[in-house]
Amino acid sequence: GVGTGEPSGLHLCLVSGQVAGIHKKVARTIGISVDPRRRNKCTESLQANAEELKLATQLTGPVMPIRNVYKKEKARVITEEEKNFKAFASLRMARANARLFGIRAKRAKEAAEQDVEKKK
């Protein structure tokens, strides 16, 4: 973060890049930002950074491919049901049902309670 002294993500000074054996311009292409202003004062953090870099670069290769699963349907005769299907009307009905769901549930509950009272 800003002002915390600890860089967010992998920000590396040029030296730790050299330790890990990654050129600064290559690092940019694999999503590691190199900060020329940073200096690692102690060797521990230098080693840690180099380790992190090695970990970050061990998986190189194509990202998992996206396979398009496409199922072809056989041609068939249109049924009567499909002929009479009204898309807009059914969408409006679905929307109305979704909207009135809570109210209808409440009314049903009240009706059930009144039935119980009538039976008494």
Summarize the structure.
The protein has 120 residues and is mainly α.
Could you describe the 3D structure shown?
It is a single chain. It contains five helices and two strands. The chain is mainly alpha-helical and 120 residues long. Among the domains are: 11-56, no CATH class; 85-119. It has a two-stranded parallel sheet. Helix 1 (14-20) crosses helix 3. The termini are far apart.
Shape: elongated
Output the strand order for the largest sheet: 1-2
As a percent range, the share of strand residues is under 5%
Report how far the terminal alpha carbons are from each other: 68 Å
Bin the helical content: 40-55%
Order of helices and strands: EHHEHHH
Instruction: Please give the count of helices.
Output: 5
The radius of gyration computed from the alpha-carbon positions, rounded to a whole number of angstroms, is 32 Å
Low-confidence stretches: none
Strand tally is: 2
Biggest sheet record: 2 strands, parallel
Keywords for this structure?
mainly alpha, 3% strand, 120 residues, 5 helices, two-stranded parallel sheet
Give the SSE map:
Layout: E1 11-12, H1 14-20, H2 24-29, E2 33-34, H3 43-56, H4 80-83, H5 87-119
Helix pairs in contact: 1-3
